[in-house]
Amino acid sequence: MGKEMRLDKYLADMGKGTRSQIKEAARKGRIQINGVIEKKPDTKVDPETDTIVFDGSVVSYVTMEYYMLNKPQGVVSATEDNKYQTVIDLIEGKNRKDLFPVGRLDIDTEGLLLITNDGPLAHRLLAPKKHVDKIYYAVCDGFVPDSAVPEFAEGILLPDGLKCLPAILEIISRKKEDGKALSEIKLTIREGKFHQVKRMMEAVGCPVIFLKRLTMGSLTLDETLKPGEYRSLTIEELELLNSL
Ligand code: URA
């Protein structure tokens, strides 16, 4: 037998409303357990064996969810915001109400963001001591100097006093577009200080004008996802993350 839980918690966890809204729904006969209307919100149910129907649709109980999002610009990495759309708002197919983004990308940054309700996994990915690699692609103003490569490799000291951990800078291209010098780079960092990539590039005189995260640990952005699109992690992706 599985673990029993209260009917109202079951439905609240699955985002069907607050406990009091669910109590009201039960009173009105909108909830069924195994085909029988149940009016008591504190009735115990077994998520593994009982079938719960809410407003005519079966509601399965999901404990953990894992989504890979290609974060678009203009959306904030938060669970709630009173001004902007959040990354959680973009996950339309979600079941759990307790999803959160694992770490933050700036509002104008695109790319890989893991969305889950797995707290221990998030902790392992974000703990500063774990030094999980993150690879970013950026377009920067100006021609990034070759000297930035060894400076970053040694750990650059930022003008504001932050001493960065060693990072790998790859200069992909330096070209002029409409008379403007631009560089494309890839940067691998193993920490995640506030505006880290932007601050590092600024420190070598080449402010970031476009930033996208490509990887986080073993997880790589699925390039078939357009900005704003998401999918569930595969079993393989999840196993790799869990072996961290
Ligand atoms: N570094 C930044 O500057 N911004 C991000 O969003 C992520 C890393």
Any key phrases for this structure?
244 residues; alpha+beta; Structural Genomics Hypothetical 15.5 Kd Protein In mrcA-pckA Intergenic Region, Chain A; Alpha-Beta Plaits; nine-stranded mixed sheet; four-stranded antiparallel sheet; 15 strands; 30% strand; elongated; binds uracil
Offer a quick outline of the entry.
With 244 residues, the protein is an alpha+beta fold.
DSSP, total strands: 15
Give the CATH topology of the largest domain: Alpha-Beta Plaits
In percent terms, what proportion of residues is strand? 25-35%
CATH architecture of the largest domain: 2-Layer Sandwich
Q: For the residues shown, what is the average pLDDT?
A: 96
Residue stretches low in confidence (pLDDT < 50, at least 5 long) are: none
Radius of gyration: 23 Å
Number of helices: 6
Q: What class, by secondary structure content?
A: alpha+beta
Give the CA-based shape. Answer: elongated
Distance between the termini: 32 Å
CATH class of the largest domain: Alpha Beta
List the secondary-structure elements in sequence, H or E: EHHEEEEEEEEHEHEEHEEEH
Considering DSSP H and I runs of 4 or more, what fraction of the residues is helical?
10-25%
Number of domains: 3
What's the helix and strand layout?
Elements: E1 5-6, H1 7-13, H2 19-27, E2 31-33, E3 36-37, E4 44-45, E5 52-54, E6 57-58, E7 66-71, E8 100-101, E9 109-116, H3 119-126, E10 134-141, H4 148-154, E11 168-177, E12 180-189, H5 196-203, E13 208-216, E14 219-220, E15 230-232, H6 235-242
